[in-house]
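Complex 315.
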Amino acid sequence: MNQSTGNLPKSVTVQSPASVANLVCGFDVLGMSLSNPYDLMKVERTDATGITIRHTDEYQLPTAPEQNVAGAALLALLHEYARPAGFDITITKCIKPGSGLGSSAASAAGMVVAANHLLGAPFGKEDLVRFAMAGEKVASGVKHADNIAPCIYGGITLIRSIFPLDIVTLPAPRLFVVAVHPQIEVKTSDARQILRKEVLLKDAIKQWGNIAGLVAGLLKNDYSLIGRSLEDVIIEPVRSMLIPGFAEVKKGSKEAGALGGGISGSGPSIFMLCEQEGIAHEVEKVMQEVFNQIGIAYHTHVTTVNPTGVTIVDG
Ligand code: HSE
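Predicted structure with L-homoserine bound:
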């Protein structure tokens, strides 16, 4: 913590990736980082204290640090750094806010990784997750880490406990991820509000069987077990009602050979995991057909699991 910033870089650019929270059965505890899409953030350390935030995209996000996801995460970091520091931040978001693809987590995680780099890495990854969670609180009112952790650690992560934080990185076999983002709005806060506060024991048993099965499938490279475990009997039946075409996408994707999938985070994006790239492109076609038929505009992504998370591209 005593390191002087004199010899450290003054500027850094990071790529901060999209992520899929929950991975169907693991509500608030599992998450996966994606190779695409990603945001770009240029962060400069200034001589004066204070935080300036600029956006070069169309989303008109707030720029006051305490109202901005990246700003709130940075303030949490600086609170613990406890020495004067100032930053100019330029954010180019390519992950659409409100997509369910971890847009707010990308801003918060990218910010703290960049600032930590410019300050000589005084903090470890677990600290960075903790700071970035302050950004998630601004975005959705809740400090969840299932997008933040994969964004910072890369790959697939399990949040075994949030208070205190206990993050477990999981191996993943080669997987292709297909995501469709129908252009409808589902706010994370609303998608959490509608959930039942109690679950039936029989549903809980199914759910923890599936979470354990999914983790075991990832550890054993067992694609069939991964596919069988991508089942959510608690959250999906409620939230899927907010997403037109959900049932058709799921059924059609599985018929096209996807291992399985479901709602990405709190939606409205839907994702599917596939063992082969060719199947992933077939699944993308299914998704396109469903939303063309319904008449809802959409974006699709065919991508892979991102093993590294936030990446420094310059600085
Ligand atoms: N686990 C969170 C939820 C992720 O499903 O509400 C939100 O992106």
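Residues 21-22, 27-28, 144, 146-147, 188, 191-192, 265-266 surround L-homoserine (CB under 6 Å).
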